[in-house]
Design a protein that fits this description.
Layout: E1 2-3, H1 15-22, E2 24-25, H2 36-41, E3 51-52, H3 55-72, E4 75-77, E5 89-94, H4 104-120, E6 125-129, H5 148-157, H6 167-176, E7 182-189, H7 197-205, E8 210-214, E9 221-225, E10 233-239, E11 247-254, E12 260-268, E13 274-278, H8 283-286, E14 291-294, E15 303-305, E16 313-318, H9 332-338, E17 342-347, H10 349-353, E18 359-362, H11 370-381, E19 385-389, H12 392-396, H13 408-413, E20 434-435, E21 446-447, E22 467-468, E23 470-471, E24 484-487, E25 493-500, E26 503-508, H14 523-536, E27 547-548, E28 550-554, E29 560-561, E30 570-571, E31 587-589, E32 596-598, E33 615-617, E34 626-627, H15 629-651, H16 663-689, E35 692-695, E36 698-701, H17 728-731, E37 736-738, H18 743-763, E38 772-774, E39 786-790, H19 799-810, E40 814-818, H20 824-831, H21 843-851, E41 859-861, E42 887-890, H22 896-899, E43 903-906, H23 910-914, H24 931-950, H25 960-968
Parallel strand pairs: 5-6, 5-7, 7-8, 8-33, 16-17, 16-18, 18-19, 19-26, 37-38, 37-39, 39-40, 40-43
Antiparallel strand pairs: 1-4, 2-3, 4-34, 9-10, 10-13, 11-12, 11-14, 14-15, 20-23, 21-22, 24-25, 25-26, 27-30, 28-29, 28-31, 31-32, 35-36, 41-42, 42-43
Helix pairs in contact: 1-3, 3-15, 4-5, 6-7, 15-16, 18-24
Length: about 950
């Protein structure tokens, strides 16, 4: 036996002290009759010594302490060496798949040691590999015994394969051609379960005892590509679970030329089998990533290759300057369709032209400015791609077209029409729009026709429920079909295109909203925009049955190189479901513009440890060590429970060594011993079945990702009523905010008041707790001195809420109302004074609604002479996220409660300026002064808090000299 923590054995030196402390117990109480005279008669003036503990009880306690010390010393019983026979043929089976690459050097050293030992014993060897073998490959692993020198030469030339094992095929070979006279079987395993393990284990055990060698010092891990559109998560780390301790891995992000863009540390918690690999890089840098690989272990399974489909193409969305309304705005569906697969940039046309973009999408009404159209035309001629959408503005414009009935000769000789690209249109359009459905038309909405082979949309499935109810019509022309990429069932164009210089113009003959069709509501709209994005960047990633040949593949060590002779082409539609194999090794397939990546870890969703085939040993040939520490601790706990049970029996008057005086004592002994054994069983159960949570006398299994915890049993129900829970705001001073029902607004309110509370705690004598979200009319508001109320456009208070807020203000509470920006009309008036505030449409009318029933006194703009301006800090401005906004308080002399204003109304958006996230950062910018403005916002918040706590305290004339002195400084 060995000890992993030998210093803990010094605890055995405390055994004499334990003996001295535990050798005595208090004397047992004697039963006496109550009559006082009888008690007085038996009183004796003598000293009473304590009784000694029985020797067997002392031994029980010493044994518990000894076992506890031994358990903390982590005793380990070393595994003995497995003896192998020295006669007969030796069968050596080796896992040489992609998961064996991490321990390949140690694996080959062990295999050579086994073969050399066989050579000394003059034995012959059969070498058998379990990795899959290609159809055209020559099988070198014959089941004929060979000389050890030949086997050693094969081991020298052996390398791991960049695909998985095929243990089922190996079992079939052993059953079809069973070798004779096998003396011993050695299996160098990777330890990962796979299909065919049962048949493989049965086939090996037919030849006798199997010694399975696992290389536990080298962890088995792999990288799995993340699902599409996973944001910053580019891969997922999977490994065999290890319940003992967390493991740290390092992931490197490389470019194609081998440069390192980032080094990402990934920690796998104890017992976990997978963890995400986040790569937080700018999109421009992220588009340069070609490979993600583990530093250790390395190999093809620890490498993820990225292809053109993993790039985020920069796309510009042109805005007209107005706010984009959800569900009906021109950019709503475009933004949601492109956000997962593109790097979106929104702005006006001039702003987008100043950025390095290859695609600009212009909804209807954004290209009405002739000067902007001229700049866009030059940008398209230089290689840009403009994608336009029709709409009421384009349908209502006048288009110069030639009579549809004119002959081709007349069009050529007499009245040649103007080039439609001058108006940034791919084809000439007819005036107006075509209505394809509705109560006032005879027609029905049209469906889409299949896409032509020359269209970038070729191969996309068309849903049967996608219909078009309105479109702008192209002017008939002889070459109209050449400019059409998508058509309706009646042959009219849906998407047209035309080249302009080095660039291209694309027009959707429908709007980008759901007014003219339900195409923006379908997945086809997303796929079409993604195809156009790839087409504009010179990328054409096929998704059909086109064959892609391998260009570069990974070898068994995870290095890119030329494909092996066994590699074959793969259909573009089969990449997601094809595991790596000799015919399809991991690597890059297809030309550069249509390149696809086949990764070794695509089919590795998780890893599970394989069941042992035979006797498990380490590379030295020894069985695994047996840890004894947990058993010692369990035994110590059981002895301590037994000691407690015995002491309780002795205190109750039971005398060991004599028969029980009453049957109740025997029953007590049985109950105590049974409870002790049950408690020992509960403590021993996690060692056999994994972690558990003990609740009373029940054991509830825990999940893999949540550590076991012990929950106290619920208190028994008694007749006495339990004390009611006291609100936290009654035990400490807290600020509160009104819950609006909008998660984003409520989250900002909570973060803002938390940031203000922390600021006030650090700089004043006030001690504020965490803020509370309250619902007036439901929650008690009397605990809070200050209530922050962000106004949303849909705010409609009930009578109960108005009554609760009225009572709150009447009893001295201060209501801080914040519209968090200005309504559009009021913002124009404010902008005339040089101020700026965010657009908060509908808040002006909402403010009137929420204050209509409240006792709001006459208000006046707050100046730096108001008491609130010098409650703690002396302020001349009261900004929030926005500066220059007026703050309204009760007019002097109009407020009750010692002239303290019960309401403060503003639009500076203080919560965003105060907000602090969980990391301690300020996530929202303040406009326009930045950090200095945020400092003033915090100071205004502190003044409001002190104002709510102290009232008109600073208005006392006793403070005038100090204020004048500070003003003089």
């Amino acid at each position: 036996m060995i000890f992993l923590t030998p210093l803990a054995l010094l605890g055995l030196l405390t055994l004499p002290l334990v003996w001295w402390l535990l050798k005595a117990t208090p004397p047992a109480a004697r039963p006496q009759r109550f009559p006082p005279i009888q008690i007085l008669r038996q009183l004796r003036a003598r000293e009473s010594d304590v009784a000694r503990s029985p020797l067997w009880l002392l031994l029980v306690r010493l044994a518990a302490v000894c076992l506890l010390v031994l358990g903390l010393a982590h005793p380990v019983l070393p595994g003995d060496r497995v003896q192998s026979t020295d006669h007969g043929t030796l069968l050596l089976v080796v896992d040489d798949d992609m998961l064996a690459a991490s321990s390949w050097a140690q694996r080959m050293a062990t295999a050579r040691s086994i073969v050399e030992d066989a050579a000394h014993a003059h034995r012959r060897v059969i070498l058998l590999r379990t990795a899959a073998v290609g159809e055209t490959a020559i099988d070198q692993d014959t089941l004929t015994p060979r000389d050890t020198n030949a086997v050693l030469q094969d081991l020298t030339a052996l390398h791991p394969q960049p695909w998985g094992t095929d243990r089922a095929a190996t079992a079939q070979r052993l059953e079809a051609h069973p070798p004779a006279d096998i003396g011993s079987v050695f299996y160098l395993a990777n330890g990962v379960a796979s299909s065919g393990d049962a048949a493989f284990a049965t086939a090996l055990r037919r030849f006798g005892k199997v010694q399975e060698i696992r290389f536990t010092e080298n962890p088995v891990a792999a990288l799995v590509p993340a699902p599409p559109h996973s944001g910053s998560i580019l891969a997922r780390l999977v490994a065999l679970p290890d319940p003992t301790a967390p493991r740290a891995f390092t992931v490197r992000v490389h470019t194609q030329d081998g440069g390192t863009l980032a080094v990402v540390p990934v920690t796998l918690p104890a017992g976990a089998s997978s963890a995400d690999v986040p790569v937080d890089l700018p999109n421009t840098v992220k588009n340069r990533i070609d490979q993600i690989a583990l530093t250790s272990p390395s190999g093809p399974a620890a490498t993820v290759l990225l292809d053109e489909g993993d790039r985020l193409r920069p796309v510009g969305l042109m805005t007209s300057g107005a706010a984009d309304t959800p569900l009906i705005g021109p950019l709503f569906y475009l933004r949601r369709a492109l956000a997962p697969t593109a790097d979106l940039h929104e702005g006006t046309g001039a702003a987008l032209l100043a950025q390095p973009l290859s695609i600009i999408i212009a909804p209807d009404g954004t290209l009405t400015d002739p000067a902007l159209r001229k700049k866009i035309t030059e940008w398209v001629k230089n290689g840009g791609t403009l994608i336009r959408f029709a709409g009421p503005a384009l349908a209502g414009a006048h288009h110069d077209t030639t009579d549809a009935q004119a002959t081709t000769q007349e069009q050529t000789d007499q009245s040649t029409p103007s080039d439609p690209t001058d108006d940034l249109l791919p084809v000439a359009l007819l005036d107006g729009s075509r209505q394809l459905g509705g109560t006032m038309t005879w027609g029905a909405p049209q469906k889409l026709a299949p896409f032509d082979t020359n269209s970038p949309f070729h191969g996309l499935p068309i849903p049967a429920d996608v219909t078009i109810s309105r479109q702008v019509l192209a002017s008939p022309a002889a070459n109209l079909a050449d400019h059409s990429w998508a058509k309706l069932a009646d042959g009219t164009p849906l998407v047209t295109h035309s080249s302009l210089g080095k660039g291209e113009i694309v027009l959707f003959h429908i709007s980008s909203t759901a007014d003219w069709s339900n195409l923006p509501l379908s997945g086809l709209f997303v796929a079409m925009l993604q195809r156009l994005t790839d087409h504009a960047n010179g990328v054409s990633i096929p998704a059909d049955d086109s064959m892609l040949v391998p260009v570069m593949t990974l070898d068994g060590e995870g290095v890119l190189g030329p494909p092996p002779p066994s590699a074959r082409g793969l259909k573009a539609s089969a990449f997601a479901n094809t595991p790596v194999s000799p015919a399809h090794p991991p690597g890059l397939y297809g030309p550069r513009a249509a390149r696809r990546a086949l990764n070794a870890g695509t089919q590795l969703d998780h890893m599970a440890p394989a069941l042992p085939v035979g006797t498990l040993t380490n590379p030295a040939g020894r069985r695994p060590d047996t840890p004894l520490g947990r058993y010692c601790l369990i035994a110590a706990a059981m002895l301590l429970l037994l000691d407690a049970a015995l002491v309780l029996l002795m205190r109750s008057g039971f005398s060991f060594g004599k028969s029980p005086r009453r049957p109740k004592q025997a029953l007590s002994i049985a109950l105590l011993l049974s409870s002790t054994l049950a408690a020992g069983y509960v403590h021993a159960e996690p060692e056999q079945h994994g972690p558990s949570t003990t609740i009373g006398q029940q054991t509830v299994p825990s999940t893999d990702n949540q550590p076991a915890s012990t929950v106290a049993p619920p208190a028994p129900t008694t007749s006495a009523a339990a004390p009611s829970s006291v609100p936290g705001a009654a035990l400490e001073t807290r600020l509160a905010y009104v819950l609006t029902g909008h998660e984003d607004v409520d989250a900002v309110s909570r973060q803002g008041l938390q940031g203000l509370s922390d600021y006030a705690n650090a700089r004043t004598s006030a001690k504020l707790g965490h803020p509370d979200g309250v619902r007036p009319g439901q929650d008690d508001l009397s605990y809070y001195p200050l209530l922050y109320w962000p106004i949303t456009p849909d705010a409609r208070p009930t009578a109960a809420q108005t009554a609760a807020l009225t009572g709150f203000m009447a009893h001295g509470g201060i209501l801080l109302i914040d519209t968090q920006g200005q309504d559009s009309a009021s913002q124009q008036n404010e902008n005339a004074n040089g101020s700026f505030a965010g657009d908060a449409p509908g808040t002006r009318s909402a403010l009137r609604r929420v204050t209509s029933g409240l006792p709001i006194p006459p208000l006046a703009p707050m100046t730096d002479h108001h008491l609130l301006a010098h409650t703690f800090y002396m302020l001349h401005d009261f900004p929030g996220r926005y500066a220059g906004q007026p703050v309204w308080v009760a007019r002097e002399g109009e407020a009750e409660n010692d002239d303290v204003s019960p309401v403060i109304i503003g639009s500076a958006d203080w919560a965003h300026a105060w907000a602090v996230d969980d990391s301690g950062n300020t996530p929202f910018a303040v406009i326009p002064e930045g950090a200095d403005q945020r400092q003033l916002a915090y100071r205004f918040g502190v003044n409001a808090v002190i104002y709510a706590l102290t009232g008109n305290y600073k208005a006392d004339q006793v403070h005038v000299p100090m204020l004048l002195k500070r003003l003089g400084e």
